[in-house]
Design goal:
Largest sheet: 2 strands, antiparallel
Structural class: mainly alpha
Strand order of the largest sheet: 1-2
CATH class of the largest domain: Mainly Alpha
């Protein structure tokens, strides 16, 4: 509420009194200590210009004595003097106050930078913890004789993926060392060159690239690990390793550049931008999960089903439901780093409230997906399916990953519900066409990811089907005059549909170009006798993942 005329005059008199005997120059801006002084600055300037201000100075004590807000204003003056370090006198040097204000602004900016770094490091660590979740889910879903092989592939995904991301992954996705951004991929910062600047005296100036490299690396590792589940229990390690290198060195980084790297799918005015609005995939339903899910489907189809999987042979049930449940909880926990961390900063309340909205939407969608699949499978099979419920939770989480920052909670509920129904339908369809996907990687990540990208446009909280919020979060995308831009929703929907199609085709084509030749050359599928006894016995030391004889337990 603006101050009244009388209170403004009193505040002006306090400023005059405080400045009496001090320096004549002052500079009060939005960063000044007291809002009352900011509010009346224009009035004070006018009084000074008219040379009328001094006429009031000798009456200031009488006015202060009888004004209703006198005690508050006198206390404010006292606080101002204390803030700039003056003594008991009534003089304040506003030049000195301006210097302290500028120093405070620099300190605040420095603290904001540190806060953003800590936010991304913490959230990146949460996303990295998801690797343990993937490992537990996949290990629990496979047969006991292949547990070590599954765990090794997950470890290799992280280690090899790290080196690939350092080598070419970041370069293609974000490497803008020369200041130019290309529509397809970039070429700078290979091996993190240019992250640090060193002058002739050896003084190093850091950049923000290190923390961004770390955070984005965790996403690249997740995309590669999704594929592991689709080819579990029958893929040869060298062939799988070759694909992991291609995935993290080229397939995934190019998709990242088209989108998050401000490539051709991003909005902009360049001739190569898809349109002014561009895509909306906040945390990677399509970029990460759909990419990994489609690659998993191609790999599962190319390597073929596990021996006896579709011929009625028994023994393909998950060997450990506890591991699956544990892995699901770890993934759910890590998802808050995945989605909330995609704000990429946490230096003001606006970002904090957006991260909170993201967390709430993520929770609601995941919970809805889990309950929905539990109910569907009970209706279909008259049994409670814990593993199915876990995949329903993951399907809900994947579905909300793209729209988590631009939809309200009711929409998050519907997105998780529809994502769970799509998951269950596609899971049955994939099994019907005899593609062996042991952990339903495609149904969870591929279809859930595609649906999430579409939902990010359909459920955006912009007004009607014309305005669009997208990356602007709480605010609409605005035109040059600051008004909500008309037609933005249609552009975003078109861009997101193109994203789904292009990511699917790109990943399918390049994955097939690797998996199919490897299969034809006999370098992809494990021989039948090895599958029968288990990869752990033939390929690992020790030969068993557990030092327990499970046959003793019923």
């Amino acid at each position: 509420m603006p101050p009244s005329k009388s209170s403004s005059v009193v505040a002006v008199l306090i400023v005059l009194a405080a400045n009496a005997g001090g320096g004549s120059g002052y500079n009060v801006s939005d960063e000044a200590v007291l809002d009352k002084f900011i509010a009346v600055k224009a009035e004070y300037d006018a009084l000074v210009a008219q040379q009328t201000a001094p006429a009031f100075a000798h009456r200031r004590l009488d006015i202060l004595q009888f004004h209703p807000g006198a005690s508050e204003l006198i206390a404010a003056r006292r606080d101002l003097r204390a803030n700039v370090g003056v003594g008991a006198s009534n003089s304040v040097n506003f030049t000195e106050l301006s210097k302290k204000r500028d120093a405070l602004a620099i300190a605040i900016k420095d603290l904001q930078g540190a806060t953003d770094h800590m936010w991304l490091i913490l959230c990146g660590a949460l996303v990295f913890l998801m690797q343990a979740g993937f490992a537990m889910v996949e290990a629990g879903a496979c047969r006991v004789r292949n547990v070590q092989n599954v765990l090794m592939k997950n470890l290799v995904d992280v280690c090899v993926g790290t080196l690939c991301w350092w080598f070419t992954g970041w370069t293609l996705a974000y490497g803008v060392g020369d200041g130019e951004n290309n529509p397809f991929a970039n070429t700078q910062n290979m091996f993190s060159t240019g992250f640090l600047k060193e002058d002739a005296d050896g003084i190093i100036t850091p950049s923000n690239n290190m923390v961004n490299w770390f955070f984005q690396w965790t996403f690249a590792s997740a995309a590669a690990t999704i594929v592991s589940g689709g080819v579990a229990e029958r893929v040869q390690f060298p062939g799988y390793l070759f694909f992991t290198v291609l995935m993290t060195c080229f397939i995934y980084p190019c998709i990242v550049h088209w989108t998050w790297g401000n490539g051709w799918l991003a909005g902009g005015e360049n001739s190569w931008n898809i349109n002014k609005t561009g895509f909306m995939d906040f945390a990677g339903s399509g970029i990460v999960h759909m990419c990994g899910g489609v690659a998993a489907l191609v790999g599962a189809a190319a390597v073929g089903p596990r021996s006896g999987r579709f011929t009625g042979a028994p023994g393909f049930e998950p060997h450990s439901q506890p591991l699956i449940v544990l892995g699901t909880f770890i993934l759910w926990f890590g998802w808050y780093g995945f989605n909330c961390g995609s704000t990429l900063a946490m230096h003001n309340n606006k970002l904090g409230t957006l991260a909170a909205q993201v967390a709430m939407n993520t929770t609601i969608s995941g919970a809805t997906g889990g309950i929905t699949v539990l109910i569907i499978r009970y209706v279909l099979f008259k049994k409670y399916d814990v593993g199915g419920m876990c995949n329903g939770i993951l399907a809900g989480l994947v579905s909300i990953t793209a729209p988590c920052a631009n939809v309200e909670s009711g929409s998050a509920f519907l997105i998780g519900l529809i994502g769970a129904v799509l998951y269950q339908s596609v899971s049955l369809l994939v099994a019907r066409v005899k593609i062996d996907d042991p952990i339903d990687a495609f149904a969870v990540h591929g279809i859930g990811g595609a649906w999430g990208v579409i939902a990010a446009a359909l459920f955006d909280w912009g007004q009607g089907t014309d305005k669009f919020h997208g990356w602007s979060g709480w605010e609409c995308l605005a035109d040059a005059e600051g008004s909500c831009r008309s037609g933005a929703w249609g552009e975003a929907f078109a861009a997101n549909m193109v994203q789904v199609i292009v990511v699917a085709l790109w990943t399918l084509a390049l994955s097939a170009a690797v998996f199919v030749p490897l299969r034809l050359l006999g370098l992809l599928r494990v021989p039948e006798d090895v599958q029968e006894k288990g990869l752990d016995e033939f390929k690992h030391s020790p030969q068993k993942a557990y030092a327990i004889d499970f046959s003793r337990f019923s």
